[in-house]
Each structure stands twice: as structure tokens, then as C-alpha cells.
Amino acid sequence: MEFRRLGRSGLNVSEISYGNWLTHGSQVEEDAAQACVKAALDAGITTFDTADVYANTAAESVLGRALKGQRRAGYELFTKVFWPTGPKGPNDQGLGRKHIIESANASLQRLGTDYLDLYQAHRYDRTVPLEETMLAFADLVRQGKVLYIGVSEWTGEQITRGAALARDLNVPFISNQPQYSMLWRVIEEQVVPASEREGVSQIVWSPIAQGVLTGKYQPGAAPPAGSRATDESGGKNMISRWLRDDVLTAVQALKPLAEQAGLSQAQLAVAWVLQNPNVASAIIGASRPEQVHENVKAAGVKLEDDLLAAIDAALADVIERDPRQTITP
């Protein structure tokens, strides 16, 4: 495993991090989830990412149990706040002070820890003053419950404003968690430059485009039985946008390029996002331990310029680059 600094900070994270969106507490049984976390630890992954909304808080609880007994200083634990959970009362969502503080305390309890290495705003909240949001995060840092703060799917402008307030409050704002892959490059024009200016790194999700970049989905064919594209609770809606014949045909052209590099298509996809120097870590999910062992081999891989150019040429007509596609509520 290779490690990178997260933002302009002293926190090291593994290049491959383990996330449990769509898996723990919903898609896979707890025994399988425990096995995947063990596989991640055995592979050298030290960075674990979750969120209170995943499986309506169950994912945090499963991850907490899976990490129980591990040396706390030996791994980095990240979670997020924004979306409604539980009974969904009027203050059970968003980035108001009440919801942030209560959610942080609930996440700590579910995860079985005294502190979070990174606490992230899961989206930008247009209904709450940013000053209120950042002050609540700063107070959690001063209480020792959170070491660093980050965000997810914020625009370049939002990151710039948040970073300015964080400096005023003297708290470490060091990361953004966006979707990023060979197919989805919307952060490159605005988010990455703003992040580089502010000392913020990307922790990217869906580097394999929900599995499409593995090449297992064939143009003109039904999705394989048991795949994410057939699982109503496992992200079927998210992956559907990529299940077009033009996309799937272009992805098939990546197979010889991956073979040329001595990689599987999944490994090539994960290695590709790590070529961006503003990316500190790529989040992988897994329903089976062997998926962890395969994808972790992308750590430390250097892709040559001619290979990167060939990837761009193969996917040219299906790449999404529009910065307006950054996800916001």
C-alpha cells in the first residue's frame, strides 16, 4: 500500500480507502461485511469511509463492529452528515448546528470511537448560513471529537468560501469527496483548481463508475444476474446512466489497454484516478473479499502518458466533463 497526505495537513491516508455505501447494512450480510473489512486491513488499507445515511445508520454500526479490537491509532475513520436519518424530524437533516452536533455524537456511538479522523459535510446546505455550519464543525474539533473537517460534492466556489471561514476559525479543512472516474470528470475544470489553491485533496468515490469500468456489462446484452445493475437496493438507479450501448462499447476498448499495462480493467480504472495529483485516495467498495484484494493492486501504479492518451481517445465521446454536473441538492 502507498500513502498520501490529505490536503495541506499532516494526515496520511492509504491510496485505496474502503467505503461501505451500498454494502454494509443493506446489500451484504454482516459476516460478508466483516470479511471485507478484514481483507482491507490485511491488504494495508488504513482509511475507512462511511456516512450516517448509509443504510439509515446501519452501515456505521456494522463498520464499528468490524473495526472493534483494532488499534485505534492504526486506522483513519471518516463519516459524514447532511441527509435525514431516523424519524426524519424537522431538524434531522441539513447542516444546521443542532443536526451537526447531534449527528456527530450519534455517529461516534455507532462507530464505537471517541473521535473521528475526518468529519465531512455530505452536501452543501443552501438553507443554512455557511458561518453556522463551519462554526459547528470547528466546535467539534475544539472538543476533540473531530480531528479534521471535509466536505463532499461541493463546487469550487463553495470550497473556496468554506476554506476562508475555516482559516478564520483556525480549523483544518482538508478534503472534498466527489464522484470521479474515467467517465465522470466534472471536477477537473473548477473543483480541482479551487482545491489546490485551498490545500484541499480529493477522496474520490465510484472510481469504477459503479462497476461499468470493469467491462462486465456488454453492449446489447442484459446485465449479469446478481450485478449492481439488477439490485434495487444496491445502486441500480445510479448505474443506469452508464448502461448505454455507446458507453459500454467504448469501455470494451479499454480491455487491451488494461492488458497492455498488466492490469484488470477495474485496477486500471482505480489507478487512473490516482494519477491526478490532487486525489489523495480512491474509495472502493466490496461485497466479497476478493474484490478488495483485486482493486488494492492499483495502489502505487504509474500509468504512462501514451496509455493515458489512449484511454482518453477510447472514451472521448462518452466522457462527462460539465462542471455544472457536480452533485448538489
Describe it.
This protein is α/β, with parallel strands linked by helices and 329 residues long. It has a single domain, classed as TIM Barrel, CATH 3.20.20.100. 36% of the residues lie in helices and 14% in strands. The protein contains 12 helices and 10 strands. It has helices spanning 30-42, 58-67, 97-111, 130-142, 156-169, 191-198, 236-239, 245-252, 255-261, 265-273, 289-295, 305-315, and strands spanning 3-5, 12-14, 16-19, 47-49, 76-81, 116-121, 146-151, 173-176, 201-204, 279-284. Strands 3-4-5-6-7-8-9-10 form an 8-stranded parallel beta barrel, surrounded by 4 helices. It has a two-stranded antiparallel ribbon with strand order 1-2. β5 (76-81), α3 (97-111) and β6 (116-121) form a beta-alpha-beta unit. The longest helix is centred in the N-terminal third of the chain and has 15 residues, at 97-111. It is globular. The chain starts with a strand and ends in a 14-residue tail after the last helix.
